Amino acid sequence: MSQNIESHQVENRVFPPSSEFSAKAHIGSMEEYERRYRESVADPEAYWADMAGKLHWQQPWNQVLDWSNPPFAKWFVGGRINVCENCVDRHLESRADKTAIIWEGEPGDVRRLSYRELHTAVCRFANALKDQGVASGDRVIIYMPMVPEAAVAMLACARIGAVHSVVFGGFSADSIRDRIQDSGATAVITADGGWRRGSVVPLKDNVDEAIADEPGVKRVIVFRRTEQDISMRDGRDVWWHDAVAGVDDQCPAEGFDSEHPLYILYTSGSTGKPKGILHTSAGYLTGAATTFHDIFDIREDDIYWCTADVGWVTGHSYIVYGPLANGATVLMYEGAPNHPDFGRFWKMVQDHKVTLFYTAPTAIRAFIKAGDQFPEGYDLSSLRLLGSVGEPINPEAWMWYHKVIGGERCPIVDTWWQTETGAILISPLPGATPLKPGTATRPFFGIDAAILDEEGNECGPNEGGRLVIRKPWPSMLRTLWGDDQRFIDTYWNTYENIYVAGDGARTDEDGYFWIVGRLDDVLNVSGHRLGTAEVESALVSHKAVAEAAVVGRPDDIKGQAVVAFVTLKSGIEGDDDLKQELRKHVGKAIGAIAKPDDVVFAAGLPKTRSGKIMRRLLKEISASGTISGDTTTLEDFSVVAALQGGKEE
Ligand code: PRX
Predict the structure, then answer these.
(1) pLDDT digits over 19-28, tens only?
(2) From 267, 295, 312, 391, mutation site for ligand 1 pocket: most ligand atoms within 8 A of C-beta
(3) Sheet of strand 545-555: strand arrangement
(4) Residue 392 CA to ligand 1 centre (angstroms)
């Protein structure tokens, strides 16, 4: 990044919380936020120790933070804790009959699990995992539809100290294989299939393809959901219901070291290989539980619905660990938002009397496009708070969410965070923060967020720079699985001992953070990160392709659409069939979300003299058809001229 980041957005609307909301909220005024924020960043260790103290410990810690070997943090050193016990067993005394999970399948089937039933299900499955040879420290891939058993599987792994790695059900066999190889997983938990837009997603078939040549996977446990025929390999595959038959209902929750690995979650980076983000136990749970409590302002009778999939970090922190650690009632939904039509979410809000609703801007934009008649057909009066996550929410989408879904009564928490951060770091507190459409507002307690320029100086109001976190926080990633050096290089090499998030941002005169977008070669498609390099590698693996460059083009619904510029091998002509074939090829290599929306065949790609592809120019071409930016470092202008259709600017 050689130039400063410009930001041209001006937004003057301010929405203070209603006095009614503030009166009942956990944090009820900006004065209280300011005071607690000041105290918490003056002494983050004291603040986080207070928060961690709310969890159930089997052995107390003797040091809050060990930051003697940055960037490798250790939190709550010497403590022993069981994450699953904190999310489940701890509630048996006062909330045994309270509903933990309300689940709705896409066909409309509904199940409810009380905390007692969740406890039994988790204990039984934990015992089954042990019977199947899974032990503490083993890595387990979870590739499941959105059914309660996905949460049960995660919690059961946590209970016995196995490290789960959830792979989003929309990912392909190749993506599963990559994650198995990188994590060294020995077991896979999956299902025959899941329902998506009226069709079966063939999860077990994908697993079979992924592990055909992976002798390291000793066991595949298969939950029966869609009931189509699948193949089961003798000696390797076992049905979930058979694995839990006859096992004990009780499974002791052994205490693990605070820093025991809890999960690995793969996310895109700017090079081809996905990064295995490692989260550990006590600090992660402290972050997820505390932020969930304050930001969603959880109360005993709330019905909370986060529409994310458990395959993303949002599903980890804000469907499973954060809400359950707070004893909340969580709604889970299996299927698509538009099945049978775009009224599905709003019907579910009405039917289950949802009070807290958390979704992504891409979904909001799709609902806006579908039309107000869908939400207007349902009673949304149960809602009292809305949330947004995954990318900047456009102010107009914010206004629609506020008016049409929130009835102008619900605060919106626009939560900024990342797979790496484990928990929300920047967000309004709904009873305190005056809201402005489009900004995640102020940092959470204990989070020392700032915007720095290239030299490391703090930027003034409305000056764009890099978003950084200057002090460690408990739910931060600990490393990239098996690659400490990449961890250092990716996040810690710009400034000394300061975490660089990879987002450009500015603060306004009120100290509110406005996220401008990613600074690296990472796309944000429908709220999910996609590395341009990953998609490029997938394209280049096709026999017709010599070289490829992928960029994002602004898109009304998805935030960014994927545009692929492709140079073919000599003698090969590009046509529509090949475009379709390449889209399919990428879908197979990564998953449907990565399929390029446009494929542009080009005789050459614009490069710098040192041979780096100038994606900036391709971005301009894909957005506007021409180039007005600086082309002085371009090696061969004729390449760009050809891409612009022969017009030299
Ligand atoms: O660019 C930011 C954007 O999403 C990135 C993190 O992506 P991921 O790890 O997939 O996690 C998504 C869910 C936590 C960030 O670097 N992002 C996330 N939330 C927001 C956001 N950008 C602006 N506003 C947000 N609220």
Answers:
(1) 999 999 999 9
(2) 391
(3) 545-555, 559-568, 598-601
(4) 8
CB atoms within 10 A of CB 289: 26
Q: Is 254 exposed, middle or buried (0-12, 13-18, 19+ CB in 10 A)?
A: middle
Do 132 and 120 form a contact (C-beta atoms < 8 A)? no
Angstrom distances, CA of residue 542 to CA of 545, 581, 584: 6, 9, 11
The pLDDT of residue 1 is 37
Domain residue ranges of the chain, discontinuous segments joined by +: 1-50+281-473+483-516, 522-645
Of 493, 432, 445, the closest CA to residue 473 belongs to 445
Residue nearest to atom 18 of ligand 1 (CA): 390
Pairing between strand 219-223 and 187-191? Answer: parallel
CB 367 within 8 A of CB 392: no
504 phi and psi, to 5 degrees?
-90, 145
Residue pLDDT, tens place only, 67-82: 999 999 999 999 999 9
CA pair distance 35, 17, nearest whole angstrom: 18
Which of 138-147, 298-307, 372-381, 565-574 has the lowest average pLDDT? 565-574
**Which ligand 1 atom sits nearest the alpha carbon of residue 518?**
1
Longest pairwise C-alpha distance within the chain: 74
Q: Which residues contact 542 (CB under 8 A, 6 or more apart)?
A: 581, 582, 585
Indicate the pTM of the whole model: 0.92
Asked whether 441 and 393 are in contact (CB, 8 A), the reply is no
Ligand 1, atom 24: closest residue by C-alpha: 392
pLDDT above 70: percentage of residues in the chain: 96
Question: How far apart are the CA of 441 and the centre of ligand 1, in A?
Answer: 14
Q: Which of 417, 436, 444 to mutate to test the pocket of ligand 1 (most atoms within 8 A of CB)?
A: 417
H/E segment holding residue 180: helix 173-183
- Decide the pairing of beta strands 356-359 and 110-114: unpaired
Residues in the ligand 1 pocket, defined by CB under 6 Å = 267, 313-314, 389-392, 414-419, 440, 501-503, 515, 518, 524, 528-529
Ligand 1 atom 7: the closest Cα is on which residue? 418
Which residue, among 192, 79, 78, 73, has the nearest Cα to 144 in the 3D structure? 192
The answer as to CATH 3.30.300.30 being correct for domain 522-645 is yes
Identify the CA nearest to 417 among candidates 479, 470, 478, 467: 467
Q: Say how far apart CA 364 and CA 405 lie, in whole Å.
A: 10
Give the Å distance between the CA of 527 and the centre of ligand 1.
7
pLDDT averaged over the chain? 94
Residue 190 token pair:
């999956």
Class of CATH domain 1-50+281-473+483-516: alpha beta
Distance 90 CA to ligand 1 centre (A): 31
Give the chain's radius of gyration (CA, Å).
24
**Ligand 1 centre from 239 Cα, in Å?**
37
Q: pLDDT for 188-197, tens place per residue?
A: 999 999 999 9
pLDDT, average across residues 132-145: 98
Report which protein residue has its CA nearest ligand 1's atom 12. Answer: 390
- Say if residue 649's pLDDT is above 60: no
Alpha helix positions (H), 312-445: 313-315, 322-325, 344-352, 361-370, 373-376, 395-400
- Strand segments (E) across 39-98: 63-66, 74-77, 80-81
